[in-house]
Design goal:
The protein has about 240 residues and is an alpha/beta fold. The chain is about 30% helix and about 20% strand. The protein contains seven helices and ten strands. The chain has helices spanning about 10-25, 40-50, 80-85, 110-120, 155-160, 180-185, 200-205; strands at about 1-5, 30-35, 60-65, 65-70, 100, 125, 150, 175, 190-195, 225-230. The strands form two sheets. A seven-stranded parallel β-sheet has the order 1-10-9-6-2-3-5, with helices on one face. A three-stranded antiparallel β-sheet has the order 4-8-7, with no helix packed on it. Helix 1 (about 10-25) crosses helix 2 (about 40-50). The radius of gyration is 17 Å and the shape is globular. Bound molecules: fructose -6-phosphate. Fructose -6-phosphate binds near residues 34 and 66.
Length: about 240
């Protein structure tokens, strides 16, 4: 794992440069997307670079990590809506090349892995991390060999995410998420974490044991993972 520590602003800029490099070398790259607060600055920077002509997504494809079960893509808290609103509507990617797992058509979630494979596999997967170590919606205890599947959300995750809804009762109880194996299949991974609330889990997943109790700890075994941290998130690292 390569660890990059900088200001919150620079972390977004430096992560964006990885997209510039990747798409310059491979214009039809397959990008793995994430939602949440962490990637918002990165997406703003990608929009800026795209408008400045420094990066093009016109041949790129994207596959997002996860979606709430029961929310249509038009719901303003769905992850499809988030991606369109924060990124896809503002860059030159073809909308038909963007994929977010459906929270409505959930009969065969593992079909998503087949679609990713058919597209050539994910070249660069973006991840955030939950305070309990989740990646995607893979909560502690998720088996390492999991593919895209439906999960029941932990109460803590629902509480943390309730800030985006008018009340906790409106937060869906289930989500569809790429599995740990789906994520590990990506050729390269960028995990971003910012803010002091992530400091403890950042230390645990980077320096602690590899355990299903800390899903992100499996990334210690991934050959091309870069972790982008701001100073607050990196504060408890010992090295
Ligand atoms: C989002 C996702 C989640 C978030 C994580 C951190 O697609 O899969 O794992 O990355 O919950 O969320 P934020 O960035 O809001 O702290």
């Amino acid at each position: 794992m390569k660890i990059i520590i900088d200001t919150k602003e620079n972390v977004a800029k430096r992560a964006a440069q990885r997209y510039v490099e990747l798409l310059a070398n491979k214009p039809d790259a397959v990008l793995g997307g994430a939602t949440g607060s962490t990637p918002v600055d990165l997406y703003k920077e990608l929009v800026r670079l795209n408008k400045a002509g420094e990066i093009s997504f016109k041949d790129a494809k994207s596959f997002n990590l996860d979606e709430y079960v029961g929310l249509e893509g038009t719901h303003d808290q769905s992850y499809r809506y988030f991606m369109n609103d924060n990124l896809f509507n503002h860059i030159d990617i073809k909308m038909e090349n963007t994929h977010v797992p459906s929270g409505i058509d959930i009969e065969c979630p593992e079909k998503y892995d087949e679609e990713i494979k058919a597209a050539g596999g994910v070249d660069m997967q973006l991840l955030g991390i939950g305070v309990d170590g989740h990646i995607g919606f893979n909560e502690p205890g998720t088996p390492w060999d999991s593919l895209t599947h439906i999960v029941e959300l932990e109460q803590n995750t629902r509480e943390v995410n309730s800030r985006f809804f008018s009340s906790i009762d409106e937060v869906p109880t289930h989500a569809v998420t790429m599995g740990i194996k789906t994520i590990m299949n990506a050729r390269s991974i960028i995990l971003m974490a910012t803010g002091s609330s992530k400091a403890e889990i950042v230390k645990a997943f980077i320096e602690g044991p590899i355990t299903t109790e800390v899903p992100a700890s499996i990334l210690q075994l991934h050959p091309f993972t870069e972790v982008y941290l701001d100073y607050d998130a990196a504060a408890l690292l010992s090295k």
